[in-house]
Amino acid sequence: xxxxxxxxxxxxxxxxxxxxxxxxxxxxxxxxxxxxxxxxxxxxxxxxxxxxxxxxxxxxxxxxxxxxxxxxxxxxxxxxxxxxxxxxxxxxxxxxxxxxxxxxxxxxxxxxxxxxxxxxxxxxxxxxxxxxxxxxxxxxxxxxxxxxxxxxxxxxxxxxxxxxxxxxxxxxxxxxxxxxxxxxxxxxxxxxxxxxxxxxxxxxxxxxxxxxxxx
Length: 215
Ligand SMILES: [Zn+2]
Prior knowledge:
With 215 residues, the protein is of the alpha+beta class. It has one domain (4-165): Jann2411-like fold (Orthogonal Bundle), CATH 1.10.3300.
C-alpha cells in the first residue's frame, strides 16, 4: 500500500479502488510511486512537454483524477479556474522533478508556487481508532488536496530518493517514477506493461538474430 508523506507525517491513504467505472478508453496512470509524480503523469508525454496530451480537459476529469488517486473525497465540484491552478502546479512540479534531465536550474517561480500551495491549508492529522496511526480526513477541499500534492513534492525533492526520480525506460511510456528499490536499478515505472513489453521485444530481437545466423 502506498504511503503518502505530508508535512513530515506518514499518512495512510484511503482505498485506491476506483469508485466508478472508467468512462474513457484511456485511464489515468498511477505508476509513479509518488503522489506528486502521479499528478505529473496526468499529462501524457512529459518528454515532449509542452506538446504532451492534456488529460485534464475539464473540471470533471480533474475531479476524476482526484477520485482515483486514493486521496480524500473532494468536498465541492471544481471549476475551470481550479483546472488552471492544478495544471500550473503540475507543470511546476514536472520542471522541478526534471532539473537534472533538462540541465536547468530550479526556477524561483516554480519553488514559490509549490510553497504557495503547501501553505494553503495546514494539514491536520486524524488519530485512527487504534490510536497508533494517523490518517487523512475523509473529505477535503480542493486547496487542501493541492496542499497535499505540493507537500508530497517537497518531501520527494528533499528526501532520500530525490536522486532516484527517473523516466521510464520504455520508449512508449512517458511516466516519471521514483525508484525506491534497494539496488536503485529499476528501469521501468512498472513491470506490467513496460518491463514486460521491453523483455518481449528483446526476446524477439534475439530470436530474429539467431534465425538470421542459422540461414
Ligand atoms: Zn513505463
